[in-house]
Amino acid sequence: MRFDQKSVIVTGAASGFGEAIAKRFAAEGAKVVVADVDAAGGNRVVGAIKDAGGQAVFVRTDVSKAVEVKAMIDAAVAQFGGLDILVNNAGFSHQMMPLWDLPEEEFDRVFSVNTKGVYLGAKYAVPVLRERGGGVIVNTASIGAVAPRPGVTAYNATKGAVVTMTRGLAMEVAPFRIRVNAVNPVAADTHFVKGALGMDSMPEPIRQAVIQGIPLGRLAEPRDVAAAVLFLASDDAEFLTGVCLNVDGGRSIG
User: Does residue 200 surpass a pLDDT of 70?
Assistant: First the structure.
């Protein structure tokens, strides 16, 4: 198994992409800290991992709060003896609307979670990874960072910042044998996207409109993103750093 006994943190792991990433790491031998603000969902994911024979613990974490991110990193060290891989996946989207109509508090919130959360993850993980002799950080950005669409401009801007932080941090920590990469997923039919739409489910006309812009003809699935994250975190990608991998079915080139 590629990640046998590796210590891994996945934020935003109670559902969607994060759940798929956490379960895939556990299935490949990792010891996983499932971090999320959603305790019920996080404990459900931990239960599923354990039922499948894996190792996992839940740590309730608001990634926009320094004290909670530090506690998350400390929990990985205490529970699993260190940290090898951090996946900064937690994210939030405001509802779709023109930028000038977006309430200031929503602007602040989306930057606090999506951008500050990545900064805080790096702030507290890098010293631990450096002491470990190296490691990997993988950030979840978005294809909206490189091919933005109307209605979610602030959200896209947060992910553009994540792309820039990924590339800049990769340069800073390369001497410590720490690699930093990102994935840029296209839309998926998850609670995250439904929140952006302000609906419990994605209406079929919207689904079809999104799919029409994706050359491979479907939305992203959590398994697509999990597979990309695990590749970037694996030894197969040992010479890749600063990479922001488009997991978008060709949307960025369509």
Answer: no
Q: How long, in residues, is the chain?
A: 254
The values of phi and psi at residue 176, to 5°, are -95, 10
CA 82 – CA 24 distance, rounded (Å): 20
- Euclidean distance between CA atoms 87 and 229, whole angstroms: 8
3-state secondary structure of 143: helix
Residue 26 CA, distance from chain mean position: 16
Q: Which of 154, 177, 181 is nearest to 166 (CA)?
A: 181
Q: What pLDDT sits at residue 204? A: 79
Domain 7-188+221-247 architecture:
3-Layer(aba) Sandwich (3.40)
Separation between Cα atoms, residue 121 and residue 64, nearest integer Å: 9
For the segment 211-237, the average pLDDT, to the nearest whole number, is: 95
- Reading the block at residue 82, the tokens are 């260190």
**Nearest one of 149, 101, 168 to 254, comparing CA atoms:** 149
Active site residue 155: yes
DSSP letter (8 states) at residue 220: B
Instruction: Answer whether 219's CB lies under 8 Å from 206's CB.
Output: no
Instruction: Kindly report the backbone phi and psi dihedral angles of residue 233, in degrees, each rounded to the nearest multiple of 5, phi listed first.
Output: -85, -10
Local confidence band at 190 (pLDDT 50, 70, 90 cut-offs): confident
Q: What is the pLDDT of residue 254?
A: 64
Domain boundaries, the chain: 7-188+221-247
Instruction: Answer whether residue 194 shows pLDDT above 60.
Output: no
From the CB of residue 165, how many other CB atoms can be counted at a distance below 10 Å?
A: 20
Alpha carbons 225 and 187: distance in angstroms, whole number:
11
pTM: 0.94
Catalytic residue among 25, 119, 155, 192: 155
* Tokens read off for 111: 């930057």
